[in-house]
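A.,

Following up on our hallway conversation. Structure tokens first:
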């Protein structure tokens, strides 16, 4: 009988120890989950790129993001300015976030109604490359270079180009 009690006691001890060992092998803790939805970034054209009135010649007309026009050819003379404006875009989104600006890297063709063409390239912006949405808004101004060839057909030349903004 004594052996039975000792055996029973030994079995109870082994089961108790093994239960304690299993209980010490796991632990549980909770964590919170969260997500923040931010305002989507948007871009709106507020002014078109306009090189103004240009006399026929060969060379380039450069328009800075500040709207300052310069030329590198002699056929441009006089005070014929016409409407000269840098392109302007309003940017909205999450306040104080930064964004990247992507300008055309390829030539953009302007076409006159009769099919004559001119090339615009070397796009630049202010801010350049990246901007910050102070209080959730910003402005991107864009300039470029217009390439004029001798014998350019008189008329109004038009074309489109894309400016893309994205959160960094």
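Then the amino acids I'd put at each of the 168 positions:
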């Amino acid at each position: 009988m004594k052996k039975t009690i000792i055996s029973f006691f030994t079995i109870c001890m082994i089961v108790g120890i093994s239960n304690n060992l299993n209980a010490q092998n796991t632990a549980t803790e909770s964590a919170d989950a969260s997500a923040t939805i931010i305002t989507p970034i948007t871009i709106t054209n507020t002014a078109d790129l306009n090189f103004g009135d240009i006399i026929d010649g060969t060379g380039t007309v450069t328009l800075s993001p500040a709207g300052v026009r310069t030329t590198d050819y002699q056929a441009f003379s006089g005070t014929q300015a016409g409407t000269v404006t840098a392109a302007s875009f309003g940017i909205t989104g999450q306040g104080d976030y930064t964004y990247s600006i992507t300008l055309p890297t390829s030539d953009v063709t302007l076409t006159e109604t009769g099919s004559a063409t001119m090339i615009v390239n070397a796009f630049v912006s202010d801010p350049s490359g990246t901007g910050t949405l102070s209080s959730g808004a910003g402005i991107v101004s864009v300039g470029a270079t217009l390439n004029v060839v001798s014998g350019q057909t008189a008329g109004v030349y038009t074309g489109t180009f894309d400016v893309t903004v994205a959160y960094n």
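The mean pLDDT is 88. Curious whether your intuition agrees with the design.

B.
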